[in-house]
Task: structure prediction
Amino acid sequence: MDSILDLRSDTVTQPTHAMRAAMANAIVGDDCYGDDPTVIELEQQAAAKLGKAAALFVPSGTLGNQLAIFTNCQAGDEVILGDDCHIVCHEVGAAAVISGVQLRTLESNNGALDAAKIHSKIRHGIDIHEPKTGLICIENAHSNGRVIPLATMQAIWQVAQAENIPVHLDGARVFNAATHLNVDVREITQYCDTVMFCLSKGLAAPIGSMLAGSEAFIAKARKKRKLLGGALRQVGVLAAPGLLALNDMPQRLLEDHQNAQELARQLACIDGIEIDLDSVQINMVWLRFTRDIDVDALMHALHNAGIKANPPEHGWMRLLTHWQIKASDIAHIARTIQTEIAQQ
Ligand SMILES: *Cc1c(COP(=O)(O)O)cnc(C)c1O
Result:
């Protein structure tokens, strides 16, 4: 297992040995009675770390985002968000199914939304024809691997505050964003009312995400989590590795970012591959083939070299680094791709 270099995603991360031990030894209760002490500790620590009053453990990032929409909005409301964000592209249309909201998408600039454009789309539902804007959603780090600047978030926040519209941050990789910006994560989350982040990606917990916000918001979200079947029982076994993910893993994300940059630099030297090195901001490398390649042969060569990767889509290939990819693995990965491409 450990000898395979799995670059498909940071969701593939295995729990660390310390996490497995913490799971085995976790003190647990029934979280639906509110008496699992390990979950309570995780929720309190996550809230404090994100600068919010309360937090809720959820089984997945998708559920966290959907609960944010379900809790913040009424059916028929409009949610303003980027047309390339996770909620639009990768959550199965859940916002329509669960919350009955209308997604009002804006074109983003590499994931960044323009505050003035958002402002121009906000509606208060005063006219009998028009829906009301219920929520603005932003994503940082964006799933395209870019980090949205604090000034962009601040500008959106100011518009939202002035118009009295809540802001939800899809912060699946918000600790990667904070690492890239070299700021405390609260510098980012100060510009949102509610935030979701994943314990189960680069932070390496096996399962789970956290949703944070005000006490009143989390109380409502807790009930809606029950409605959706996402309330769990002795979930301290998941909160225990979650605590290690929250406390021990953010500080090592820089290593993943440096490994991604080194991989990008080595791949960028290969004839037939193009990489925008400036876009490698977190643990994600996007490369483009500048000529037709035999994808099956490439995947075969990677497989034979003990490397797992998703095949390119529309000429683009995405490679992610995480705690199981070491600096000493980078040259092997780059060389495998170089040798194969050179032969084609
Ligand atoms: C992964 C991800 C999610 C969803 O998390 P799951 O746990 O896979 O449901 C949401 N938003 C972004 C930006 C993500 O990268």
